[in-house]
Please model this.
Amino acid sequence: MDDPIGSHPTRAEQLDILATMITDQAKPNDCVLDLGCGTGYVASLILEKRSDLYFTGVDIKADSIVEAKINLTSHKDRTEWFVGDLEAIEEIEISDVCYQFIITALTFHDLPDSAKRDVISFASTRLPSEGFFFLYDRIRLTEKSFFPLQKSIWNRINSIYGRGMRSAESFEAYEADIMPNNRPGCLDDYIKWFGEAGMKAQILHLHGNVALIGGSKVG
Ligand SMILES: C[S@@+](CC[C@H](N)C(=O)[O-])C[C@H]1O[C@@H](n2cnc3c(N)ncnc32)[C@H](O)[C@@H]1O
Model:
């Protein structure tokens, strides 16, 4: 399956890193829950690598879930799919199985901060003590003085990959571009919300301002 979001040049590698961590660490029959699964791209990366894992995907778009089911037909015995809104995560009737890995990829920037915090808390509640939460998304730029450095990184990505990622000409333009489907979380908030949920957070991989954050329950 091809990456459905080709405009983001570093995404395919980082999602493969995410999938590889899971397929390297998972035990036979472990279950993975993907919050904001889209058309099942991450599911395909994981299930192609390991034939003994189970996958549950949740997305707000019924069309994407239909497409995910088609894309993952060859793994239908190991997948289940739910239409649901992460802004009301407690109302989604996700199966009551033990998820060893809960992941969310490029979805948190669509959520208000209150829902980001609630999803992190949900993940902590549902994970066993040895499980992991993986959050992959852009991190909010908050310091104007660093903005020229970020522009250098965006420009370099553009010149190397021949295409760029969501960027802005100035810090003011960047802030004006923050809106309901583009509100990346701040690193400080993430660290705080993971802590409040009883998880330690660790940045596992960074490319520009796109971070793969791992969370694990303390104790
Ligand atoms: C950029 S796509 C990423 C899809 C997938 N994770 C991937 O990496 O291929 C973001 C996904 O988040 C989903 N999404 C956005 N807001 C959501 C919400 N409130 N509840 C559930 N899913 C949501 C969108 O429908 C979309 O499929």
In short: The pocket of S-adenosylmethionine is lined by residues 4-5, 36-38, 41-42, 59-61, 64, 85-87, 105-107, 110-111 (CB under 6 Å). The chain is about 35% helix and 20% strand.
